[in-house]
Design a protein that fits this description.
The complex is a heterotrimer of chains A (284), B (274) and C (311). Chain A is mainly alpha-helical and 284 residues long. Chain A has helices at 2-23, 30-54, 65-74, 76-109, 113-127, 135-142, 146-169, 174-182, 187-223, 231-240, 244-272, 277-280. In chain A, helix 9 runs parallel beside helix 10. Chain B folds into two domains: 4-96 and 173-271, P-loop containing nucleotide triphosphate hydrolases (Rossmann fold, 3-Layer(aba) Sandwich); 103-157, no CATH class. Chain B has nine helices and nine strands. Chain B has helices at 4-13, 63-70, 88-93, 112-122, 127-140, 156-168, 186-203, 214-220, 254-271, and strands spanning 19-32, 35-48, 52-56, 78-83, 97-100, 174-178, 206-211, 223-228, 233-239. In chain B, helix 5 (127-140) packs across helix 6 and helix 8 (214-220) crosses helix 9 (254-271). The longest helix of chain B has 18 residues, at 186-203. With 311 residues, chain C is mainly alpha-helical. In chain C, 75% of the residues lie in helices and 0% in strands. Classes of the chains: A mainly alpha (284), B alpha/beta (274), C mainly alpha (311). Chains in contact: A-B, A-C. The interface between A and B is medium-sized, with 22 and 26 residues.
C-alpha cells in the first residue's frame, strides 16, 4: 500500500510541477524543455517500479526498473560484447556501407531524368516495405557472423537514404540554377556549390530514419542465426531461459544506443544544415 | 503602337557603332496545355553600351522573358539576337552577364562574403583577387562590415544589395535586373534606386532593368521600353531627356512627369487590345 | 502528380533483367551439387573443392549446367518466374481447388497479417491523432510527450517484441494477434502523430486571428479550422502509417514463433530451408502493402474532391 500511495503522490506532484512549468513564462527556455520530459520519464519509471512492487509481480514476467538497473551494472561485460557484435560490427558497418552506396547511386542516376523518375516511385515504395523479412535470405547467403547482419542493414537503409538524396538533389530552386547558368558554371560546379548543400536537409532526414532501421535490421538478423553473442541472440535466448532482467537490460542498451545514434546524427545535421529554417527557427 | 518597320527605322536613323544588344524580329512561343502562348512576338530593339534600359509593362508582356532570352536562360523560337556581336549562349559562356533576380536568392549556407565570392570561385579567380574584389564590391553596395553575416541575419534590402554585389563582383559586361526591388517597400526602394544610379554612373555598365513601376523606370533609365501582353511585344521606346545627374527631387519636375505620362499612354495603348 | 509510367516500367524491366542475370552465378554451386549427385560430370569434383573456385570459373568450366540453376527446387536465388509460380500456387490455385483457407495458402496467412495490421493501424492512428490533438492544445503535453515520442522510435522495436508477447500472455491475453497489433501500433502511431501535429498547426496566423475576432471557442477553432486544414496531412500520414503498421505486424511475427501470418511463413521457410516460400511471402507482403496504400490513396482523392480540393 505504501508503494502505491507513494507512486500516486509522486505522479500528482510531478504532473503539477510540469503543468506549472509549461504554463510559466520560462516555458521556452532550454532548461524547462529538458527538465519537463525528464520528469515525465521519471514518473513512468516510478509508476512501473511501484506497481510491480505493489502487485508483487514475479520478476520472470516484469522485473522492476531497479532490478534491471542492477542486472545492467552486474553484466556490463556481456552487454559490452553484445554491443560490439550487434552495433559496431553489424549495424554501424552496414549503415556506413548502405549510406555510401545510396549516396553514390543518387549522384550516378542524377544526370538521367529517366532513371530518377523511374527510381523515385520504386524507391519510395520499397522504402515502405517490410524489407526486414529478407533477413533469413541474407543470413543464408552470408553466414551467421556479422557480415550477414551488415548486409541486412545495408539493404534496409539503402532505399530511404537513396530516395531522400534523389529528392534533395532536385531541391535547388529554379532561380538559383538559372543563376549558376548565367555564370556558365559546369555540372560539377553546380553540383558541389549549389545542389549538394541544398540537398543536405533531405539527406539528413534519410540518415535519421536509417539509424533506427539499422539497429532493427542488425537485431532481427540475429534471430535467424548468429554466433553466441549479440543483442538479438541474447534477447531471444533470454526470453527462452527466463532471464528476463537481462533481456530488459539489453533493451535498455538498445534504447540508449538508438537514442544516442539518432542524437549523434541530429547533432551532425545541426552543424551541417545550420542555415536551414528548421534548424534556426526554435519551435517547430 | 509602333510597327516593326518603324522601330527598324529608329535604329537605322541612329546607327551607333557601339551597339551591345541587337534583337531583330525576336519571337518566343511556349506550348502549354491551353494552346500556344506568345511570350514574345516580333520584338526588335537595340541597346547601346552604357545604356540604362528599363522594360515596363503589365505581367505577361514578356519583359522578363526578353531578359531571360538575352541571358540565354530561354531559347527564342524565331528571330535573331546578338550580344556584343555574338549569340547569347557565347556571351553567357564568356561570362558577360550579371543577373539579379527579384528574390535575392542568396545561398543560406554561405556568409554574405561567401555569396559574393561564389561567381568568382566558379570562374576560377585567384584567392587574393577574390578577396580584393569582394571587399571592393561590398563597399560599392555599402555592405562593408557585414561580410561574415549569414543572409537570414540581414534585412530584405540588404540581401538585395548583396545580390547586386554578387552580380558586380566579376566585371560582367551587362547587368540584367529582373524586378530587383519589387519585393521591397517604397522607402527602401527609393534608397536603392538612388544607390543604383550612383553605381551605374561609377561603373558605366550597360543595364537591363525590368520593373512595373512607372516612376522607377523613368527615374532610372536612359531608355524606356514599354511592352504589352498577348502577344508580348514592344509598344513604345522612349529615350529619356533627363540629365545624367538625377537627385530624387527630379521626380517632381515637369520633364519627369511628361515622360511618365508618355509611358502611361504607351501602357494604356497596350491594354486597349484586351 | 506527374505519372512516370514509362520510366518506372523501364527501371522495373532493368531490375528483372539484372535479377535473371544474377541467378546464374548465385545458383551455380547448388546446381553443380545437384548435378553431381545425379551422376553428371562436374569440374572440379566435390562440393568442398568447389568452394575455393570462383563462380565465374565454375560457370565457364561447366557451361552445360548453368541452365540448371534456373530450375532448382531450393535455389539460393530463385528466378522471378519461380517466385511468380510459387505465388500463384499458394494463392490462385488454392482458390481454384477450394482450399483458400488452407494453412499452405498465402491468402490465409495474408489475411491473418492483414487483421493484425488493421487493429494495429486503428490503435496506432487513434493514439497518434489523440496525441497530436493534445500536443497542439496543451503546452505541457507538447513538452513532455514530444521528446519521448521521438525517443520511442529510436528504440528498436524488435528488441521489445518478445517482451510484449511474454507480457501479454502473462496478463492472460491468449489471442496471438494482440501483441502483434501492439507492435504494429507502436510503429504506426509516430508518423501519424508527427503528420497530424503539422496538419493541426498548418492554419495561418491570420486564419486563427479571424476566428479569434469572432470570439470562437477552442473547440470551434478545432472543428472549423484546424481539423479541416489537417485533412491533406491526415491522408498523407495515413499512407505512411499503414505501411508502417504492416512492417510492424511482420516484425512482430518474425521473432515470436508465430505459426500463421506472412512473417511466420518467412520464419517457417527459413527453418525448413524452402527459399521459395520466403520469397513468395516477401512478395505477398509487398503486394499487400501496395494494395493498402493504393486504397488510402483512392480514399484521399475521393475525400479531397468532396472537400473541393484539387487532386
Amino acid at each position: 500500500m505504501i508503494w502505491l500511495g507513494f507512486a500516486l503522490i509522486f505522479w500528482c506532484a510531478a504532473t503539477l510541477v510540469n503543468v506549472r512549468l509549461a504554463g510559466s513564462a520560462y516555458n521556452d527556455t532550454r532548461l524547462v524543455r529538458i527538465f519537463v520530459p525528464l520528469l515525465f520519464g521519471a514518473t513512468l519509471l516510478v509508476l512501473w517500479e511501484a506497481l510491480v512492487r505493489h502487485f508483487d509481480v514475479s520478476p520472470v514476467i516484469l522485473p522492476p526498473p531497479s532490478l534491471v538497473a542492477r542486472t545492467f551494472v552486474s553484466s556490463t561485460e556481456t552487454l559490452w560484447i553484445d554491443f560490439q557484435q550487434t552495433v559496431v560490427k553489424g549495424a554501424l558497418s552496414g549503415y556506413v556501407i548502405g549510406m555510401v552506396a545510396a549516396f553514390l547511386t543518387a549522384i550516378a542516376i542524377d544526370r538521367s531524368t529517366f532513371l530518377t523518375r523511374g527510381l523515385l516511385p520504386i524507391g519510395n515504395f520499397v522504402a515502405a516495405l517490410p524489407i526486414v523479412g529478407i533477413a533469413p535470405i541474407l543470413v543464408s547467403w552470408f553466414g551467421f557472423d556479422w557480415h550477414s547482419k551488415a548486409a541486412v542493414v545495408v539493404v534496409m537503409v539503402f532505399f530511404p537514404i537513396l530516395v531522400n538524396c534523389v529528392q534533395g538533389l532536385k531541391e535547388a530552386e529554379a532561380m538559383q540554377r538559372d543563376l549558376m547558368r548565367t555564370y556558365a558554371a559546369s555540372y560539377l560546379q553546380t553540383l558541389f556549390k549549389l545542389r549538394l548543400p541544398a540537398a543536405m536537409p533531405f539527406v539528413f532526414n534519410g540518415l535519421k530514419i536509417a539509424t533506427t532501421l539499422a539497429l532493427i535490421g542488425a537485431i532481427v538478423a540475429e534471430y535467424f542465426g548468429s554466433p553466441t553473442r549479440g543483442m538479438g541472440f541474447r534477447i531471444s535466448t533470454g526470453v527462452g531461459s527466463l532471464s528476463i532482467d537481462l533481456v530488459w537490460a539489453e533493451i535498455a542498451v538498445a534504447a540508449l544506443v538508438g537514442s544516442a545514434f539518432y542524437g549523434a546524427v541530429s547533432l551532425m545535421e545541426r552543424s551541417v544544415t545550420f542555415w536551414h529554417p528548421s534548424q534556426r527557427g526554435g519551435r517547430s | 503602337m509602333l510597327t516593326t518597320d518603324e522601330i527598324d527605322d529608329v535604329t537605322e536613323r541612329d546607327p551607333s557603332p557601339d551597339v551591345v544588344i541587337a534583337a531583330d524580329g525576336l519571337s518566343l512561343t511556349f506550348q502549354t496545355n491551353d494552346g500556344e502562348v506568345h511570350a514574345l512576338k516580333d520584338v526588335s530593339l537595340s541597346i547601346e553600351r552604357g545604356d540604362f534600359v528599363s522594360f515596363i509593362g503589365p505581367s505577361g508582356c514578356g519583359k522578363t522573358t526578353f531578359l531571360r532570352v538575352l541571358a540565354d536562360l530561354e531559347k527564342p523560337t524565331g528571330g535573331a539576337i546578338t550580344v556584343n556581336g555574338v549569340s547569347p549562349e557565347e556571351a553567357r559562356k564568356s561570362r558577360a552577364y550579371g543577373y539579379v533576380f527579384q528574390a535575392a536568392g542568396l545561398y543560406p549556407w554561405r556568409t554574405i562574403a561567401g555569396n559574393v565570392r561564389l561567381p568568382l570561385e566558379i570562374m576560377g579567380y585567384s584567392k587574393s583577387e577574390m578577396a580584393e574584389r569582394v571587399s571592393k564590391v561590398m563597399e560599392l553596395v555599402d555592405l562593408s562590415g557585414f561580410e561574415q553575416k549569414f543572409p537570414w541575419q540581414l534585412s530584405g534590402g540588404m540581401q538585395q544589395r548583396a545580390s547586386i554585389a554578387r552580380a558586380l563582383a566579376f566585371d560582367a559586361d551587362i547587368l540584367l535586373m529582373d524586378e530587383p526591388f519589387g519585393a521591397l517597400d517604397e522607402i527602401v526602394r527609393d534608397h536603392l534606386n538612388e544607390q543604383l544610379l550612383a553605381l551605374w554612373a561609377r561603373t558605366g555598365k550597360t543595364i537591363g532593368f525590368v520593373t512595373h513601376s512607372i516612376p522607377e523606370a523613368v527615374y532610372l533609365s536612359t531608355k524606356i521600353v514599354v511592352m504589352s501582353p498577348r502577344p508580348g511585344r514592344i509598344t513604345d521606346v522612349i529615350d529619356s531627356s533627363l540629365p545624367k545627374e538625377r537627385p530624387l527631387g527630379i521626380r517632381d519636375t515637369p520633364e519627369f512627369l511628361e515622360i511618365a505620362h508618355r509611358v502611361r499612354d504607351g501602357l494604356r495603348a497596350g491594354h486597349a487590345y484586351d | 502528380m506527374k505519372l512516370s509510367f514509362f520510366p518506372v516500367l523501364g527501371v522495373l524491366g532493368a531490375i528483372v533483367v539484372l535479377w535473371y542475370l544474377a541467378v546464374a552465378p548465385m545458383n551455380i554451386r547448388v546446381a553443380l551439387d545437384v548435378a553431381e549427385r545425379a551422376g553428371a560430370e562436374v569440374v572440379p569434383k566435390g562440393s568442398v573443392v568447389r568452394r575455393d573456385v570462383s563462380v565465374w570459373r565454375l560457370m565457364a568450366q561447366n557451361s552445360g549446367h548453368v541452365a540448371q540453376g534456373y530450375a532448382l527446387d531450393r535455389p539460393r536465388l530463385p528466378t522471378p518466374q519461380q517466385v511468380g509460380q510459387e505465388l500463384w500456387k499458394t494463392t490462385g490455385k488454392m482458390v481454384q481447388r477450394g482450399r483458400t483457407w488452407s494453412k499452405r495458402s498465402l491468402i490465409y496467412h495474408g489475411w491473418i497479417t492483414l487483421q493484425s495490421t488493421f487493429w494495429g493501424f486503428l490503435l496506432g492512428t487513434s493514439v497518434g491523432i489523440l496525441g497530436a490533438v493534445l500536443i497542439t492544445h496543451l503546452r505541457v503535453m507538447e513538452l513532455s510527450l514530444m521528446p519521448w515520442a521521438i525517443i520511442s522510435q529510436t528504440i528498436p522495436i524488435v528488441a521489445l517484441a518478445p517482451m510484449i508477447i511474454v507480457l501479454s500472455s502473462q496478463v492472460g491475453i491468449e489471442e496471438r494477434g494482440v501483441p502483434k497489433a501492439i507492435i504494429s501500433a507502436y510503429l504506426c502511431y509516430f508518423p501519424v502523430l508527427v503528420g497530424m501535429v503539422k496538419g493541426l498547426r498548418s492554419p495561418a496566423p491570420a486564419q486563427l486571428d479571424l476566428l479569434k475576432t469572432y470570439n470562437a471557442s477552442q473547440f470551434q477553432v478545432f472543428r472549423l479550422l484546424r481539423l479541416p486544414a489537417s485533412v491533406p496531412y491526415l491522408f498523407t500520414t495515413l499512407k505512411v502509417g499503414v505501411a508502417a503498421a504492416l512492417v510492424g505486424t511482420i516484425v512482430g511475427e518474425l521473432p515470436t514463433g508465430a505459426i500463421s501470418g506472412l512473417g511466420a511463413r518467412i520464419l517457417i521457410g527459413d527453418q525448413f530451408g524452402t527459399p521459395l516460400a520466403i520469397w513468395s511471402a516477401l512478395f505477398a507482403a509487398a503486394i499487400l502493402a501496395g494494395a493498402l496504400v493504393t486504397l488510402l490513396d483512392v480514399a484521399q482523392r475521393l475525400v479531397q474532391r468532396r472537400m473541393g480540393g484539387r487532386t
